[in-house]
Amino acid sequence: AIERTLSIIKPDATRRNLTGKINAKFEDAGLRIVAQKRIHLSPAQAGQFYVVHKDRPFYGELVEFMASEPVVVQVLEGENAIAKNREVMGATNPAQADAGTIRKDFALSVGENSVHGSDAPETAKEEIAFFFSGLELVG
Ligand code: CMP
After folding, report:
1. Residue pair 34/105 in contact by the 8 Å Cβ criterion
2. Backbone angles phi, psi at 119, to 5 degrees
3. Most buried of the four, 29, 69, 75, 109, by CB within 10 Å?
């Protein structure tokens, strides 16, 4: 089925001018960027987005990192977009990511791992609504 998923190009990647190279990997995989904006999250906003991880030992570090510099938030659309995006991203830890994936090619560490992608249809819906209004989604 055609799905939409929420993607974030993280500060380690925007800082290194990798937005275009990462978007090329999405587009080459058949994912369409139907919404996109560059924003600088406040610590409160980053904390709210990742609230599901609030009891994890890395939460503070994750929130500080995500609010450190601008990110690019985007909605990707395509056949099986949620799973396809996770394939294109590669494993969370770049040391375990397959060749050719975004994290293998660009990520610095498990924390500074260049991209975020929704993990399931329900979270995709919530995460898209966190950043975008319906009017901003141009299919
Ligand atoms: P993401 O897909 O954005 O969802 C939660 C993030 O937490 C994850 O990617 C990682 O960047 C981060 N994360 C997971 N494990 C660790 C860890 N051990 N140390 C620091 N950050 C982590």
Report:
1. no
2. -105, -5
3. 75
